[in-house]
Write a structure and sequence with these properties.
- The structure holds three protein chains of three kinds.
- Chain A has nine helices and eight strands.
- Chain A is α/β, with parallel strands linked by helices.
- Chain A has a single domain, classed as Thiamin diphosphate (ThDP)-binding fold, Pyr/PP domains (Rossmann fold, 3-Layer(aba) Sandwich).
- In chain A, helix 1 packs across helix 7 and helix 3 crosses helix 4.
- The chains are: A alpha/beta, B alpha/beta, C alpha+beta.
- The interface between A and B is large, with 34 and 39 residues.
- Strand 1 of chain A pairs antiparallel with strand 4 of chain C.
Chain lengths: 249, 355, 73
């Protein structure tokens, strides 16, 4: 018999601390599969955020650096400027990237830093117990928007992929989802393209992955998948937002 | 090598390059901008990287990444920007990474002024960021001393895997003096860094991290850090004792204040007062044995600083409160004059209190 | 060797695989694993088409999927 599916080498055997049904597990695995397929495990350095995936360094068989909250793109910039021939990626949640780290991601993209960012958007703060995120939808109840996010006092959700796509330094920006096997396959393709963009020296690449947080949404994993499809995709449309063809010198 | 007339901020940059620094990440802030300007031109000449970051916060995190990747890397700022870097500095200390951070102090608190000050002493030597950590803090008093200490700064950082701060002030940054640089354009040999995150080729992955969720592990980590600081305290103090043998009144100061105090000491001696100057060069580790030796016969100690009184607390503490320690300071960018300091010395000599 | 194999001790009982399987043959077992979850499992191995959708959706790398090697039958 031929093995059709097994654990990628870039993923360790550690059992994750993530909640049942948390899509971090899927996304970690996709990143690991892509690194395996591109053959770059020994030349890649990952940067972990603060958030549920703060312990991502336990799950990737790679050199990793733990960054302060929001600062991963700056840390990755430091690494890539010292080691331009290595592959450097950040893995960040919506608090890390879109709130405290908003300046760092915008400027890494604007500078066209040749790094890849995996942005996990689950419209809430998971690790700290379910607070509102910049990506929380209007009307969505969280621990710090107990009556539902109100535009008047709490503003509007931020579409990071579209915003970053306006920057000339961004070479590849896409938004994907992981709510069924077909979308998981598309997500993997986008992640692979993002890493290939870095390898070809084109510039900054980012994949925003719509994800679930069953625990803080108060739903079962299967209900959460449905909530994502019904509520997040209309506001955060899937697709490639920016794809530059030529290498910018 | 011939002497060259240079501005302090620029000499800092050239000294860093000769000490092997090839990466600089920083953000503009007065009064240190000539340093990034200089390195923006100089680093590409030696195959290095200069990057103006979007903020001091981003810059210190770029330093973290670069240091974790094994580089000799530097950032610089002035007081308000150093406040922004505190988060990054505790992460660098906790992850045991080497780097050099330059603070050309200016008036505070808050936005303060762009004039020189020495009111970041507490921030530099007592922490600034959260957690039980220390920076090694060097306080040059002349531009030549900046040049002479720079190699040591990077060596100490690499040896102890700890951030090293060069605590200057606006005067040092802006003034011009004749300096001589070491011949080499870079050190012959740089220490190996097998712990760095360079890509896990043929070895187990390396991790650069300061997170230890398990309390036993974090306590052990803290004990390791303290053991490191104990070694630094035992081995790395530096100080200058000027005319302190038999001195009855010892002045204490660092950086620009020390130069002014030295001039006052000379004038006092010319008037028959047995004055001397103790100048710590390392502020952490504080040169405790050295200050106690220098003040052995002192009846009075006078600390001179451009602050409302920060170094003076450590002077009292390290002299174990055995000698009366007086304070003379100016703030807001006001610089003590030699005449005013001499006035303080004369009052102490006459047995009176300070003005 | 099985076409679809579940490392039951890794399973957190999230059930994403049960919805992903186009043949609807993935079910949650009656017993518990040592973490206290009902692990996913497949009893009807013959019905498995080795599509790998279950493994694709699994966040915990519980599932290994194999297919018949047609060359060697």
């Amino acid at each position: 018999m031929i093995t059709v599916f097994a654990r990628p080498e870039t993923l360790t055997t550690a059992k994750t601390h993530y909640c049942p049904g948390c899509t971090h597990g899927i996304i970690h695995r996709l990143v690991a599969e892509v690194i395996d397929e591109l053959g770059i495990r020994e030349e890649t350095i990952g940067v972990c955020p603060v958030g549920c995936s703060v312990l991502a360094y336990h799950y990737f068989n790679l050199d990793m650096q733990e960054a302060a909250h929001g600062r991963a793109p700056a840390v990755a910039t430091g690494i890539k400027r010292v080691l331009p021939d290595k592959t450097v990626f950040t893995y960040q949640g919506d608090g890390d990237l879109a709130s405290i780290g908003a300046a760092e991601i915008v400027h890494a993209a604007a500078r066209g830093e040749k790094i890849t960012t995996i942005f996990v958007n689950n419209a809430i703060y998971g690790m700290t117990g379910g607070q509102m995120a910049p990506t929380t939808l209007l009307g969505q109840e969280t621990m710090t928007s107990p009556h539902g996010r109100d535009a008047v006092t709490q503003g509007y959700p931020v579409r990071m992929a579209e915003m970053l796509a306006t920057l000339d330094g961004a070479a590849f920006i896409a938004r994907v989802s992981v709510h069924n096997p077909q979308e998981v396959a598309k997500a993997k393709k986008a992640i692979k393209t993002a890493f290939e963009v870095q390898l070809s020296g084109k510039g900054f690449s980012l994949v925003e992955v719509l994800s679930t947080c069953p625990t803080n949404w108060g739903l079962t994993p299967l209900e959460a998948i449905k909530w994502l499809q019904d509520n997040m995709i209309p506001y955060y449309p899937l697709g490639v937002k920016k794809e530059r063809q030529e290498v910018k010198d | 090598m011939a002497k060259v007339l240079m501005k302090g901020n620029e000499a800092l940059g050239e000294a860093a390059v000769r000490a092997g620094c090839r990466y600089f990440f920083g953000y503009p802030i007065t009064p240190q901008n000539e340093l990034p300007h200089y390195l923006a031109r100089r680093l590409p000449e030696v195959g290095g990287v200069f990057l103006q970051a979007e903020s001091e916060v981003a810059a210190i995190n770029m330093v973290y990444g670069a240091a974790g990747a094994g580089a000799r890397v530097m950032t610089s700022s002035s007081s308000p920007g150093i406040s922004l870097k505190q988060e990054g500095l505790t992460y660098i200390a906790g992850a045991e990474l080497p780097c050099v951070v330059v603070n050309m102090q200016r008036g505070g608190p808050g936005l303060g002024s762009i004039q020189p000050a020495q009111s970041d002493y507490f921030q530099a030597v007592k922490g600034g960021g959260h957690g039980d950590y220390r920076l090694i803090v060097l306080a040059p008093a002349t531009i030549q001393e900046i040049v002479d200490l720079m190699g040591k700064a990077f060596d100490l950082a690499d040896q102890y895997r700890n951030p090293v701060m060069i605590l200057g002030d606006g005067i040092l940054g802006q003034m011009m003096e004749a300096v001589e640089f070491p011949e080499q354009e870079q050190p012959a040999v740089l220490p190996a860094k097998p712990w760095a995150s360079t890509g896990a080729k043929g070895r187990r992955p390396n991790l650069i991290n300061s997170l230890y969720l398990n309390p036993e592990e974090l306590e052990q980590h803290n004990e390791r850090l303290q053991a490191k600081y104990a070694k630094i305290i035992a081995n790395e103090t530096m100080a200058e004792s000027y005319l302190t043998d038999g001195a009855e009144i010892v002045l204490v100061g660092y950086g620009s204040s020390a130069r002014i105090a030295k001039a006052a000491v000379d004038q006092a001696r010319a008037q028959g007062i047995k004055a001397g100057l103790f100048r710590p060069i390392t502020l952490f580790p504080f040169p405790k044995k050295e200050i106690q030796a220098a003040c052995r016969q002192a009846r009075q100690v006078l600390t001179v600083e451009m602050s409302m009184g920060q170094l003076v607390e450590d002077v009292r503490y390290n002299l174990e409160f055995k000698v009366p320690v007086h304070f003379y300071g100016r703030a807001g960018g006001m610089v003590p004059t030699t005449r005013a300091v001499l006035e303080q010395i004369k009052r102490l000599a006459e047995g009176g209190d300070l003005a | 060797m099985k076409k679809v194999e579940f490392d039951e001790e890794r399973c957190k009982g999230c059930e994403l695989c049960t919805a992903a399987c186009p043949k609807h043959i993935v079910v949650m077992a009656d017993h518990l694993n040592s973490m206290g979850f009902h692990p996913a499992t497949v009893t009807d191995q013959v019905a498995c088409i080795s599509c790998g959708f279950c493994a694709r959706m699994c966040p915990d790398v519980v599932i290994t999927v194999r297919k018949e090697d047609k060359k060697h039958g």
